[in-house]
Amino acid sequence: MSYRQNFHKQIAVHYSGRVSYSGSVDGKPYSGSVPYSGTAYEDVQVNIDVETTPFDNSVANCNNSVNVLTGAVVATETAQIVSIDSNAKKVGSTIVEGFFKTIRSEISQQIAELSSRLDSHLAHLHSMAKRCVEKQTQMQGDYQRISSRYLKIFEDLDNELSNRIYELDKPAFVFKNQSDKHAGRTLTGDLASTVAVFGAESGDLQVRLSASIAKKRAFDTIGKANTFLVKQKRLNDTINQTVLNESVVAVQYSPVCFIETQNEKSQIDKNLYQADFLPKMQANEMISDFQAKTWGNVSKDNAEKIGRYFNAEVSNRYSTGDTHTNRVRENIVKMLNFSSIKSV
């Protein structure tokens, strides 16, 4: 679009110079020069006509070209986005498919490995079950054979004991047999009329035998009581000889556990554990004392004692029979390594 621009400005023009003159007065010539200077002002107005039609046409052509280029860029960007999206989906589907193929392959390999291990374990279990059945059959046979042998031994001992008792008290047994025969004969024979005379003698004999048995049992009881009293007297004498009847100041010891650990940030943590019945001790002082001590391996005797107490505590605290508890108990027992434990 064409337009006109007006410019108005006052211009100052500075001028200067010298004017020479000459002449004569009364026949006398003269000459000289006179300087001059000054400033002249002039108003200037300029009218400029700007023809912008060619520029406007070129701008319009450029705008059209830019619009075409913008459309091409937008179309290219859209096509690129579509291509990126499709390629991303293809890459994603390929990665996911490859991942799942890898996982399926890994799982298949693990399943095959576990199946083979399971088959081997099952075969081993079957063989062990067969051996257990064979051991059970063998133990049953051994038990029957040993029990029959010991039953025969006990029967022989009973018979031998019965024979010895019979030999020791043979007169009493002979008298008992004869009295039984005599009693049967008196009840079934013609001597039934003599029961009144024989009854008093038989009753007196039974009373004497009963009294003798009671005396024998009382004698055995008195002997056992005497033995018990003698042993109790000896025990009391032993205790009195070993116990000191005095009150003295003594020192009692209690175990204290000092643990030094290192976490994943290579930071060392120091902890002190003590029994609940002890008063609270200064952990820093105890740790300093522990670090100043000379540490060594646990002795074999102490390791055996600690191991027995440790196993008893683990069994008491993990006494349930579920799988998790058994696994935790086994891992705790495996972690006990006296070669890596230091003591003072």
How would you explain this protein's 3D organization?
The chain is an alpha+beta fold and 344 residues long. The protein is built from 6 helices and 6 strands. A two-stranded antiparallel sheet has the order 1-2. The protein has a two-stranded antiparallel sheet with strand order 3-4. A two-stranded antiparallel sheet has the order 5-6. The two termini are 104 Å apart. The mean pLDDT is 79.
SS element count, helices: 6
Radius of gyration: 65 Å
Give me the count of strands: 6
Mean pLDDT: 79
How does the overall form come out from the CA principal axes? Answer: elongated
The succession of helices and strands, N to C, reads EEHHHEEHEHHE
Q: How many strands, which pairing sense, and closed or not: the largest β-sheet?
A: 2 strands, antiparallel
Please give the share of residues in helix. 55-70%
Largest sheet strand order: 1-2
Poorly predicted tracts of residues: none
Quaternary: single chain
What's the end-to-end separation, in Å?
104 Å
Q: Which percent range describes the beta-strand content? A: 15-25%
Computed structural class:
alpha+beta
Explain the layout of strands and helices.
Layout: E1 3-25, E2 28-50, H1 53-168, H2 170-188, H3 195-242, E3 257-262, E4 268-273, H4 283-292, E5 296-297, H5 300-317, H6 323-335, E6 342-343
Antiparallel strand pairs: 1-2, 3-4, 5-6
Summarize the structure.
The protein is an alpha+beta fold.
